[in-house]
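Exercise 7. Predict the joint structure of the components listed below.
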Amino acid sequence: MTQFAQNVVLGLLLGGVYALVASGLTLIFGVMKVINIAHGAFLVLASFISYTLWSALGIDPLLGILVTSPIIFAAGWLTYKVAVEPIRTAPMTSTVLLTFGLALVLEGAMGAIWGNNSTSITPSYAEESFSVAGLFLPKVDVYGLLVAIVVLGALALILTKTWLGRAIRAAAVNSTGAELVGIKVSSVAALVFALGIGAAGAGGAIIGVLYPFVPGSHYLWIARLLAIVVLGGMGSLNGAVLGAVLFGLAETLTAAYISPSWATAVPYLVVFAVLLIRPQGLLGSHLRQDSVTA
Amino acid sequence: MTATVSSTPSKPSKQAVPTLRHVPPGWIGRIIAALATAAVLAYPLVSDDTYYQNMIIISLVFAIGASGLNIITGFTGYVSLGQSAFIGLGGYTIGVLATKFDTVSPWLWVPVAGLVAAAVAVGLGLVSLRSRGPAFVIITVAFLFLMQQVAVNWEDVTGGTAGLLLPLPTWGIDVINWPFYYALVAILAVQLLMTWWIRRSKFGMGLIAIREDETKAATIGINLPVHKVAAFVASSVFVGMAGAVYGYYLTFIDPLGMFAILISVQIILTLLVGGKATLWGPVLGAFLIEPLNETVNNSLGTLGGGNARLFLFGGLLMAVVVFLPNGILPSLAAFLFRRSREGKAGLVGARIETGGSLESLRKHVTVTEARATDTTPLLAVTGLRKHFGGIKAVDGCSFTVPRGSITGLIGPNGSGKSTVFNLIDNTIAADAGTIVFDGEHIEKVPAWGRAHRGIGRTYQITRLFAEMTVLENVVAAQRSFSLTQLGRPAITGKEAAEASEFLAFVGMHKYRDQKARALSYGQQKMVELAQVLMLDPKLIMLDEPAGGINPVLIERMGQMIRELNSYGKTFLIVEHNMPFMLDLCDPIHVLARGATMASGTPDEIRTDPAVIDAYLGDDFTSTRQDVH
Amino acid sequence: MNTFGRSRLRALAAASVLALGLAGCGTDSAGPDPIKIGASLPLTGQFSQPGQAALRGYQTWEAMTNESGGLLGRPVKLIYKDDASQQNIIVADYNALISRDKVDLLVGSYSSLLNLPASAIAERNRMLFVEPAGGSPKMFKRGFRYLFYSQQATADKTGLAYANWVAGLPANIRPRTAAYPTIDDPFAAPSVEAIREVLEKAGVTTVYSETYAPDTRNFDTITNAMKAANPDLVVHGASFEDGVGMIRSMLRAGFRPHWLYQTTAPSLGQQYADAIGPANTEGVVFAISHTPEANTPGNAEFVAKYQEMFGEPPPEDAADGFAAGQMIAAAVKGVGRIDQTALADWLRNHTVSTVLGDLSWDDDGRPEGEFLIGQWINGEARIILPKQYATAEQPVLGWQPMGAKS
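Solution:
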C-alpha cells in the first residue's frame, strides 16, 4: 500500500511542475488562439540560462527564476512582435507551422551556444528528499510545486482581479469588440504571449534541476504539454492544472504498474483519446460551429 | 503592352505577335517539366556519380511524400505533420516481410507496403473525422509518435530499437542504385498522375469545397466522411510504397530513422515552398529543399552540420509562412496572371443582368405539380431545442411548412431564426426535437443526406468557396452520392450547361469564370441561390435573401421566388424586410425567444397584437413605398 | 503581389541559387598526393558527444601517422563530414565521400544506428569499413566481408568479464538478488541481457527486470519499484543521461543497492563524476574499452599526443577511433598497397596491436577479445579486470555513495 501511496505522491508532485509549465501554453491559446509549438523550446532555453547562471555565477536555480523569468519574458515579447503578430489574421494552422519553425530555430541556437552535450543543474538538494510518513518526497519536486502554486496563483489573480485581466479576457473572446471599447489588443496580445512564455521560464529552471536536458529535449516537452492542455481543455487555466495533475498520475502509474517502456507513449495516447472522445477536453468550452470561420 | 478593355474574363489572350511574355504560363511550365523529367530519367545513364544519384533518390522520396501530402493538405485543407509515418510504415512493411520471407525478392513487398499505408490511413481518417484545424495537426503529430512507440515496443515483429535489416542488393556495382532510382521515378509518376486526375474529377472538387468551407460543403450534398477518408488513402498509398523502396535502399529500418518528425517537417516545408494544391509544386519543392539540406550540412564548413540545418528548416518554415504562404508556383502563376491582366478592366463593376426567364430551366428543375390530395406538410418541426451553454437559442420551437407554399419566418434579433435553419439542415445538431421532412424523420441524417433528400439553403452571410470560380461553385452541389460519381470529371458539359442556365437565371452568367472571392455581397447572394438551385431541392430555405441588396434586386428576388414556386418549389424564408415578407409569404410564423409565438396568414400576423408588441411596433404600416 | 513582395520573391530565389552554388565549391586538398581517408561522424545532434570524441581520435591518429612519415610514404589526410546523427544524412555523406571526394579509404561513424546503413554503402562499393563504435550484434549478422569493429567485443559481450567475476565470488559475498533496469537501445539491452544470463545460472535471483523508453526522464517510479524489490545488485543498461538520472533518483529515494553496475555512463570520466557528484561514484562498476592509464601497446604515446592536441586525457570513444586508424595502418602496411579486398582479408587473418590491446576478428568482422572492466575508486576510474591490465590492486566490494555533493 505504501508503494501505491508513494507512486501517487510522485505523480501529484510531477503534476504540480507540469501545471506550472502548461499554464503558459493554455493561456496563450485561450487568449490568442495560437498553439505555440515553441513552448517546449523556451522551456529548455530557460533551463540552459539557469544552468549558465548557476555554473558561472553560482546562483541557485530556484532563486535564479527571478532573473531567468524576466529574460524569457522579454524573449517572448520579442518573438511575438517579430514573428507572431504579422500573421495574426492567418488561419490557426499557419501559426502552428510558424511556431514549429521557431522551435527548430531555437533548438539550433541552443545547440550552437551550449552544444549538444547532456546538461544538468545539480544543486545540493537535487538528490535529497523530505521524508513524510514513510514516503519520500524529492525536495526539487516540492520546491517546484511551491513555485507553481505561487506563479499560478499570481496568474489567476491577474486574470480575475485586475483591469489587465479583464482586458485579456475581453480580447480573447472578441478582439474586434475589445478594440472598439478601447483595448489595445496588439499590446495585450504581446503581453499575454510574454506572460505565458515567462511562466514556462519559471518552469524551465525547475525542470533543469529535475532532468538532464539537451537542445532537442523540447520535443518531449511540447508533446507532454500539448497532451496536458488538450486534456484539460485548451484555454482553461483550471483545465491545465487538472490536466497536469491527471497526466502526472497517469505517467507515474503507467510506469509503475504497466511498464516503463509504455510510460512515454502516454502523452500521445492521451491526446488521441481526448481529441476523439471529448474534443473540448475536461474543462474547455465548445466553439460554436455555425460561425463562419474556416 | 497595349491596354485593352475586355469585358469577358477569359484566359490571357495571345497578342498578334506571340512573344515569350504572351505564351501562356501553362505551356512554359509544361516544357520545363518535360525537360526536367528527361534529365532525371537520363541521369544515371550518363553519370555514375553516386552522390548525385543519392541526392536525386532522396529528393524523389520527398517529392512523393509531399505530393501525397498535397492531397490531404493542399486540396482538402487538413495540415498533417504525420506524413513521415507512412514512409515509416512502408519501410517497416518491407523490413518485416523481407526478414520473414527471405527467399522472396523484397520488391514484391513494395505494393503491399502501399496497401498497409492505405489501411492505416483509413484508420487514421476514421478516427480523426471529428477534428479540424489545429486539433487535427496535433492528432497527426501524436499519431506519428505513437507509431514510433509501437515500432519500439512491438519487438517480436519490428525488432524494437535495434531495427530490421534488409539484404544487400545483389546486382552489379555499376547499376547499384538504378532499381531504386527508377522505381521511385515510376512511383512519383503514378502519384502525379493520380493527383492530376483527382484535380479534374468530382472527387477533387469536393475536396476543395471541403477545404474552403467544410460545413457549407456538407449542406450542398458533399459526403464528408467518404471524401476525407478517401483523401487520406490517396495521400498515403504511394507514399507507403516510396517508404518501402527507401527502406530497402537504406538496408536498415529503425524507429528513430523511419518515424522522424524532422522528415515530416521537411515534407511539409517542401509542399509549402513548392505550392500547395499544384501538380508540380511538391516536386519543385523537393528538388530545392533536399539539395539545400545536404549543401547546408556539408559545404558550409564549421557553420554547417546539425545546427545549421535546424536554422535552415526552422527559418525557412517561418519565412514561408510569413512571406510566401502560397508557395513558389502559385505565386509565380498569380504574378504572371496579373501581368497578363494589366490594363484590362475587371468585371466587378458591371451590373447584374436582369436574368433570364425560367422557361429554359424547366428541363433542369423538377417540376412538382401540386396534388390536391397531398396535404401533409413538406416540413414539420416539433419541439426543437438548442442550448449554447446557458443561452437557450432555440427552446421548443414548432411549426410546419405546407407543400408548395412560401412560408415566412420572422422575429426579433436573437429569436433563433438562423439557428433554426442551422438545425434543419444540420449545420449544427439539435439537442432535442423532431424534424420530419417529406414524411421522414431526419434528425439523425447528416447534412449531406438532408441535401440529397431535397433541402437546400442559403446563408445570411454568404458562404461560397472563395478559391473556386462561380461556375465551379454552382457545379459543386451534388444531388446524390455514389462512389462512381466521384470519378467523373469535375464539370461535365451537361453540368456546365445546366449551371450556366441557373447563373443566367440569377443574372450572374458573365461572372462564370471569376473566382468567388472577387464578388460583392449581392453578387455572392445570387450565386448562392444558383448553387442551391443546382441541388434541385424540394425545400429552399433562404436566410435573409433581401438583406443588404438594392431595391431592384430585392424585387427581382421576389420574382424569382414566385417563379420557382410556380414550379412546385417550397420556400421557407427568414427576413426582416416586412413589406417583402408580407407580400410574398403565406403562412408566416413568428419566432420570439426561441419558440414560435404566432402563426398565420400575413393579414393575421400584421394585426396580431402580440406580434406587434413583440416585433413590429405600434406604428408599423406596410405599404409598398415603405422600404428601407 | 506588390513590388515589395516581388522583390522578396527575387531575394528568396537568389538566396536559393547562392546556396546551391555553394554546393559546387568543395574543400580543396593540399599536399603531394595524400591518402584520403573519409568519415562521417555525428558532430551535432543526439550522438554529438561521442561523435566529437571519435573525430578527435581520428585526428590524433592522422597527426601521429604523418609525424612518423605517413603510410606507404604518403601523408594521410582525413576528410570528415557531419551527419548530425541522422541516417539519411550519413547515407548521403558516405556516398559523397566515395564518389565526389574520391577517398582512398573509409572509416566509420558512431553508433550502430548510423553505422548500419553506412556500412551497407561501403559493402556495396566493396570498400573496407572499420567502425570504432556500433557493437550491436546485428551489425555482424549480415555476412559482410568488408566490415570490422575496432573494439574488443560486441555489445552483448561487454560485461561478461564482470558477470563471470561476480559469479565466481564466494557465496557469502556474492549478491543474492539482482535488478536489471535497462534503456531500450541496441547497445545497452544486449549487454545487460548477457550479464543476466550468466548471473542467473550462477544462482543470482532476478527480482526486477524492465526496459524503459530511450526518452524516459523520470526514474522515480522505476527506483521506487526496485526499492520495493530490494535487490543486492543493480545492473543498469544505460547510455549517459539516464545513467545519471537513475543514480540521482536512487539517491533521492534513499535506495542504495549494495552493488551497482552501469553501462556507458560511468565510462565518460569527469563528466559523469560531475553529474552525480564525485563522492557518489565510489564503487560503481562499468565496462570500458580503454582508459588513459591502461598498459596497452602504444597507449602512453597516444595519451600524450591527445593531451597535447586537445588539452585533456582522451575519452574512450577517442581511443576507439584511434584504434580504428591503427587497424587501417597495420593492414595497409601488411598488404603493401591500397586494395580493399586484400586489406579486408589481411585483417581477418591477423592480430593488430592497438591502444585497446590486441584485436582479432572472426569471419564476420566480429572482434574476439574481452572488454576491460572498470570501477570508480577514490574519485578515479581504474581498471579491475582482466587482471593483466588492472590498474587497481583490489576492487571495491560494492557501491558506496557518500550522499549528495556539496
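Discussion. Residues 313 and 321 of chain C are 14 Å apart (CA to CA).
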